[in-house]
Amino acid sequence: MAITKIKALVNIIDDDRKPIAQKLIQELSFMDTTLTKLRAAIREGGPVIDGNTGPKQNPALTAYNTTIQRYALLNKQLIDLLPPTAKPEAKDELAEFLKKK
């Protein structure tokens, strides 16, 4: 989801939770930029680089894996701030499939 679309969510969040949401969006924006740079570094250097003692994992890949996990966590925290009626409903694909039968 683009950061501009995420910023639009602040309008539907309760006023007492807006400062928290704005801080989360700032962090998400920073992480989005960081992830873009890390992806570029991984594409350029590959997932494995030559170290002093032989091949080793690219440090950019390690940082990417950690950052993407935190990015997903912040997204969930932001979604949890939404009012219950605005939260996207989780689709149960198995239940939908069984209904079609």
Question: What is this entry, summarized?
Answer:
The mean pLDDT is 86. The chain has helices at 3-8, 18-45, 59-81, 93-100, and strands at residues 48-51, 54-57. It has one domain (3-83).
What does this entry look like structurally?
The protein is built from 4 helices and 2 strands; from the N terminus they run ααββαα. It is mainly alpha-helical. It has one domain. A two-stranded antiparallel ribbon has the order 1-2.
Topology:
Layout: H1 3-8, H2 18-45, E1 48-51, E2 54-57, H3 59-81, H4 93-100
Antiparallel strand pairs: 1-2
Helix pairs in contact: 2-3
Give me some keywords for this one.
101 residues, mainly alpha, two-stranded antiparallel ribbon
**Low-confidence sequence ranges:** none
**Quaternary:** single chain
Distance between the termini: 33 Å
- CA-based shape: flat
Give Rg in angstroms: 19 Å
Structural class call reads mainly alpha
> Mind summarizing the main beta sheet?
2 strands, antiparallel
Number of strands: 2
Global mean pLDDT: 86
The figure for the number of domains is 1
Tell me the number of helical segments per DSSP (H or I, 4 or more residues long): 4
